[in-house]
């Protein structure tokens, strides 16, 4: 028996990856595309055997998804929410990372874990926890600031708060790790030149951190576009979150509440396209600045 | 039966991974038993194994009794989250080709199951037990057609649950008409500005459906080969505007049912009534344990004095999957579960349901523990049940119910008329049916 030739070896090693990729990524995506181009058609009452069949409809579902005003309003809501989360969460993460990295901080290890800990709380649990704090008759927060935390406008801030609470720790850790990798002699040189701690942070640390900041921003953009857990878990508690509050919620509603897998497939492809566009667009804008030396 | 909302939210969130991946990754896997599998007449290989999706509490205990007596048909219960989520899950599983053999199907979801060709016609197998159920309930599993798509299990006739102690304290009579109810609502606001007589929940289309049924609504009906859809009919608009008016003038509250806030209001005596169904004692005892013995039950207020109508909130049947290779065995179990005296006694005792069979409804003994102060609880239920009227549910109730939630959420938020939300429900329902190609009568 001949052993496989030299040329076959790489493929042999690649096989597990290719099989897994095909089974769990390529096939589902292909099936989603297939679903997105079909629709069921029923005849008469639509009851009993054979009353329902699947027909090819081309790009009809995509056209319907793109023409759906509710979906675009969902995008607008998510954009506002995302801008809020992105700025506050990444700003706090950067601030905490810089503080923890500074030489004079006390209880650094404890603070690091304390800030990171909320990230370990599952999103649903975190949202329900905050949900109880927001409910008017139960809320202890009401004594601090007497507003309706689940009102038509405030609900966006309340949800952003949950995301910031849960996400800051992770992003801080990424930035902090990147900070620790910066050679210490750079700071020494800056100090010899007479730079203060603040100046070192602004002029040395942040520029050196740019690749990590870009990375966390891209991750956060993708995460906020896909926001689902917070509004879905808060929805039973308030009248202010509709079933199509975010684009992904609309996909969920179409697929599992109103039983229209075909529209859901088309909408999820539209969402994927938009997130790709936004993340790559952002990368393009900042690439030259961030990765010049790389 | 209603599962806790937060539990449902958790279940939803658990399936997030499915959505954000690709739609299909949730429903992969080979069918448990393909339809072309060997017919049952072939020599049986050991006992028939059936899976049963249900969410009624303690169903596993009841099934244990069956399994002990029927070694050749072994049933395994898989506990579900309940309500709309369970229906969505079953439809997805059926579409993916691996549904359970048996499923607890709420009456309003059964037409969606039928339209998706997910449940079997049990006409021949159930012919002997047809007489054990009232025509109204039987109609809910046949949709008025010749086929039979499930065995009725329980029903949820609606009644008015009220805080007897606080009614006495504030000098309020039990309202006999909805006009009385509105007056009582205003009185409560005057006596205790922090309390309400009731609340309108924009999260519970089932409750609203029941109230519309009481008023005589007929949202769907079948005439010949086409559907008649009339969600915004006159009785429904009347009910909607009645509640809309009360919310607008501040006579009743607008917080949703089954939230921590609602529990607190019930416990603290800040909510005096709950127009709910016969299964309410179970909910009250777990959500408002502090108020045990303080609640009482009366028939729903009527639209015209002297009438005796009610509607249904919830209630479910046991349906058999269209794909099961063991249809006969599954039907045998479903029949036992819902008509055998021993099984019904267990259903009442363990699962706390109000059984669908006529003979069982009249033979219920002791009142639920939470209502120990009301020994005639089941007699009341039987009386109410006799006057309860339902309607045929359409093939896209999920769409209609979702439109209810979004429409009434918006109406409460913007202060717009409730009848506009009802019209939106009608438009969304018809548009969805047209899109799929259902024949709709003008």
TrEMBL record, chain A:
GO terms for biological process: transmembrane transport. Residues 75-282 form the ABC transmembrane type-1 domain. PROSITE patterns: ABC_TM1. It is a multi-pass membrane protein. GO terms for cellular component: plasma membrane. Its main location: membrane. It is found in: Cell membrane. InterPro entries: ABC_transporter_permease (IPR051393), MetI-like (IPR000515), MetI-like_sf (IPR035906). It holds the Pfam family BPD_transp_1. SUPFAM superfamilies: MetI-like. The keyword Transmembrane helix applies. Keywords: Cell membrane, Membrane, Transmembrane, Transmembrane helix, Transport. The chain crosses the membrane at residues 12-37, 78-101, 113-135, 155-179, 209-228, 261-283. Belongs to the binding-protein-dependent transport system permease family. This is Sugar ABC transporter permease.
TrEMBL record, chain B:
Keywords: Cell membrane, Lipoprotein, Membrane, Palmitate, Signal. Coiled coil: none annotated. PROSITE patterns: PROKAR_LIPOPROTEIN (PS51257). Residues 1-21 form the signal peptide. SUPFAM superfamilies: Periplasmic binding protein-like II (SSF53850). InterPro entries: Bact_solute-bd_prot1, SBP. Pfam families: SBP_bac_1 (PF01547). This is Extracellular solute-binding protein. It comes from Nonomuraea longispora.
